[in-house]
Design a protein that fits this description.
The protein is an alpha/beta fold and 480 residues long. 27% of the residues lie in helices and 18% in strands.
């Protein structure tokens, strides 16, 4: 796992809109770290029963790491909240709306999924996590290839990158140059129109994954007679030709098996948002629907990742940390600037910085900057999902990984039970901020170790101001 990666600070205008929906609060400056920490830890007495939180599997690793530290700071913190229940973004939204959870976590903002009917002004939604969606695969390669020689005979020939014993195999080449896809190819795979790793589109995306095969083109001629004697004719060695072949034509299981999350997944929403930007004919707008081309669907990233690991020829998608935990190869993806980019903390950080700059420069569409509502039009209907003002997918930057996004915590804007309000406010304060003190880390300090990227400082400020909307900020500094 990588150490915590600090995001480059991007400029955000003082008028940037907060994420709390239905309102446009003034931009708030985050107070001093000591003040945040003090406020985040003041839980003197607990609610009548420990509060539930859960939802998006995209958030699970980060929230659990932060929660495990937060509950050690105060004797009552551990009795205030139950451990995070990882499921899906859809479950996170429905559980908080029904009151089953005090905090719901979702990569899909309320009402953008087309399945929520709650009044947006009743809720506060704050960004809590930033990460990349890994396109994972399980591809094995043949070490021998059957070819037809010049004499019409099928033979089995060894495969190496240079045709000799010192060359690299396809598996070795794939480690050096992980399988790459452009957005259109990925869209066609998840739409079901590309079904084989031997597709010309996949091969075209991977010119470096090419090896050579020895093909005999002239038979060996044996020697005649004995050397040194009259009539002796020396033998002629077999003549070979080296033929290039794509490693994608040498997969042990050529058929692509698409593995999908079940309906309601926020990870699916982030991926479909990207696919809608690169192939609007196949994916006209983002949603959380399962992919119809899938051979199987899974309720969470924690079950999808090992399923891909166990199936040769499989492709799937998970939050990056699940790919690392399951030792799965992640694909390089072609971004809007034309570069094939690997997923890591640096490329997600670049995507966030470039994406936030693009949003804040888009004054006509996003006059309030980063916001879950576009301009002043409020929420959208299910058929008109628009991620213009919060999506950082497919930004035009050479160093940006193209499939990345924020995830959100959702809580009621008005919480009448002060003990419930204090616990939810304090934990979200802790979760969304970064500390410069190694001995007293805040939630975002755990991002790097869990394969996320710490929220950019401007988004930390957005989070703080959003949390300040819970009961008009009365729980920020309150004790109980």
């Amino acid at each position: 796992m990588k150490k915590a990666f600090r995001m480059p600070i991007v400029a955000v205008a003082a008028s940037v809109a907060m994420v709390a929906v239905g309102v446009t609060p003034a931009f708030a400056k985050v107070p001093s770290e000591s003040s945040v920490l003090a406020n985040a830890l003041v839980v003197k007495s607990t609610p009548s029963s420990a509060l539930n939180m859960g939802g998006s599997s995209f958030d699970a690793n980060l929230v659990n790491a932060a929660y495990n530290q937060w509950k050690t700071y105060s004797p009552n913190n551990g009795a205030s909240l139950n451990t995070y229940a990882s499921s899906s973004s859809g479950t996170g939204r429905s559980a908080v709306i029904s009151g089953a959870d005090a905090i719901g976590f979702s990569d899909v903002p309320l009402n953008y999924a087309g399945q929520d009917t709650s009044t947006l002004s009743n809720w506060v939604q704050t960004p809590v996590a930033l990460g990349g969606v890994a396109i994972i695969n399980n591809i094995s390669y043949k070490t021998y290839h059957q070819v037809v020689n010049s004499f019409g005979k099928a033979i089995t020939s060894p495969v190496t990158s240079n045709g000799g014993s010192s060359g690299q195999s396809c598996a070795q080449l794939a480690k050096a140059y992980p399988v790459a896809l452009d957005g259109k190819t990925l869209a066609n795979i998840f739409a079901g129109s590309i079904t084989s790793w031997n597709s010309s589109a996949v091969i075209a995306d991977n010119p470096r994954l090419t090896v050579l095969v020895k093909v005999p083109v002239a038979k060996a001629i044996p020697a005649v007679g004995h050397k040194g004697h009259k009539g002796y004719k020396a033998g002629v060695p077999q003549k070979n030709r080296l033929e290039p072949i794509s490693c994608m034509a040498l997969t042990t299981t050529p058929a692509i098996s698409v593995e999908s999350r079940t309906a309601g997944s926020g990870t699916t929403f982030i991926l479909r948002d990207y696919l809608s930007k690169v192939d609007s004919s196949e994916f006209p707008y983002p949603s959380s629907a399962a992919f119809s081309a899938a051979s199987a669907t899974f309720s969470g990233s924690s079950t999808l990742a090992p399923a891909v690991a166990q199936k040769d020829g499989a492709i799937g998608y998970v939050e990056y940390g699940y790919a690392l935990l399951n030792h799965l190869a992640t694909m390089r993806m072609k971004n809007a600037a034309g570069a094939y980019v690997s997923l890591n903390a640096s490329t997600v950080a670049t995507a966030a910085a470039a994406g936030l700059n693009a949003i804040n420069n888009n004054n006509s569409a996003c006059p309030n900057g980063f916001s879950l509502t576009k301009g002043t039009s409020g929420s959208y209907s299910a058929s008109a999902i628009d991620t213009t003002c919060f999506s950082i997918n497919n930004v035009n930057n050479l160093g940006a990984y193209p499939i990345a996004g924020f995830s959100y915590a959702i809580v009621p804007q008005n919480i009448s039970d002060s003990k419930v309000g204090i616990v939810t406010t304090k934990f979200l304060l802790y979760l969304t901020q970064t500390s410069s003190s190694a001995s007293q880390p805040y939630g975002q300090n755990f991002a790097g170790a869990e394969a996320y990227v710490a929220l950019p400082k401007p988004i930390e400020a957005v989070a703080y101001a959003t949390i300040s909307h819970i009961n008009n900020g009365q729980y920020i500094s309150a004790s109980n």
